[in-house]
Write a structure and sequence with these properties.
Elements: E1 16-20, E2 28-33, H1 40-50, E3 55-60, H2 82-99, E4 107-112, H3 114-126, E5 132-136, E6 158-164, H4 172-184, E7 188-194, H5 203-217
Parallel strand pairs: 2-3, 2-4, 4-5, 5-6, 6-7
Antiparallel strand pairs: 1-3
Helix pairs in contact: 2-3
Length: about 220
């Protein structure tokens, strides 16, 4: 696999940090999207805590450490062309992994904060049953969220939504809207709302992520 991002726009040609098994030999793959101001390497640190070693882990880097410039609850057009470029990065990575022989149902996405919003939005737009989507402190993108329509395309795809009840960056109402949409699309959604106002990742979320990713890899989930 090439070690720079594909697609078009400002995020094309950025580095991709990797760890774990080579895609052609892996039991599955995990794509990790960092938050605003974060970077790919720190997401590999998270992968080391939650991903089985049999997974190929790939963390693309956003140009300027930011996937899109404004809040995720702004109108979509305001975050262009950065948002479309970011979504194209994920689209290209999934296609490359499939080309390397990784079944699409063995490809999971994990994002934190801005990266969680991106992963969730990508999954809805891709409209394909992936291995899992783990959205930590995030929700669907836009000033409003359109209701789900059509067939339940996700066919039991695991989704984790985790967020603090007073997260300073993520309105809890948007998390709940995302839950409703993803359930209507046929996903198996686990939502965890935690007391307090933290914007981070806790051990409960990490434990759920480990169990989900063990399923993606075909391994026995840890107790």
């Amino acid at each position: 696999m090439r070690d720079v991002t594909g697609g078009t726009g400002p995020h094309a040609g950025q580095p991709i940090a990797t760890m774990g098994a080579p895609p052609a030999e892996a039991a599955g793959a995990l794509i990790l999207a960092h938050g605003r101001g974060g970077d790919a390497e720190e997401m590999l640190g998270l992968a080391g805590l939650v991903a089985p070693p049999a997974l190929a882990c790939l963390a693309p880097q956003a140009a300027g450490n930011t996937w899109y410039p404004y809040r995720f609850t702004e109108p979509v057009a305001r975050n262009e062309p950065y948002l479309s470029s970011a979504l194209a990065v994920l689209d290209d990575l999934v296609d490359r992994l499939v080309g390397d022989g990784v079944p699409v149902e063995r490809i999971a996405l994990l994002g934190f904060s801005q990266g969680a919003c991106l992963a969730l939005e990508f999954a809805r737009r891709r409209a394909q049953r992936l291995g899992a989507v783990i959205g930590l402190s995030g929700g669907l993108i836009g000033d409003s969220v359109a209701p789900a329509t059509g067939a339940p395309i996700f066919a039991g795809m695991p989704i984790l939504l985790g967020c603090s009840e007073r997260d300073p960056h993520i309105p809890i109402g948007r998390v709940r809207e995302t839950e409703v949409v993803m359930q209507a699309l046929g996903a198996e959604v686990v939502t965890r709302i935690y007391p307090g106002g933290d914007h981070g990742i806790n051990e409960d979320e990490a434990g759920i992520a480990r169990r989900i990713l063990a399923r993606v890899a075909g391994a026995t989930p840890p107790a």
